[in-house]
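Course assignment 3, question 2. Fill in each field.
Student: A.L.
Task: Predict the tertiary structure for the chain below.
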Amino acid sequence: MAYSRIRVLGIWESRMIKNFGDHSANERTFLAWVRTSIGVIAFGFLVERFDLFLTFVAPQAVKNKIPIVRGEFGHVAGLVLIVLGIVMILVAAGRFARNAGEIDDEKVFPGTGSRVDLALATLLVLLATAFLFYLSHAFTAQA
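Answer field:
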């Protein structure tokens, strides 16, 4: 149980935080979404910068013997991942705020289901499939 200390008329009182377990679970879920979003943003940055790295460093490293395919896909994919990470943070913040309000409300709210979660997972699978297609195309173009 979690208690908070407040001062009432000059006297310190300990009060238990209402629905503390639910609030802490809501916060843990929010922080997990934020960590995942930061990972997606970092991966988007990595994709964008690695594509740039291949353009400038790789030809010098192999003495221009292997042609490096440079397309706009790396730029677009990196930016899409960054935007997707930002959207994930915004969705997580909205869900956190809504759930925090619903936890202390006396009214019983129906579950929201997992439509948003499935939509985000589907977007990530589609993006991973596009990466796979891009990499297979880049390797066959070099051969």
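Instructor remarks: The chain has one domain: 24-142. The beta strands are 3-8, 11-16.
Grade: pending
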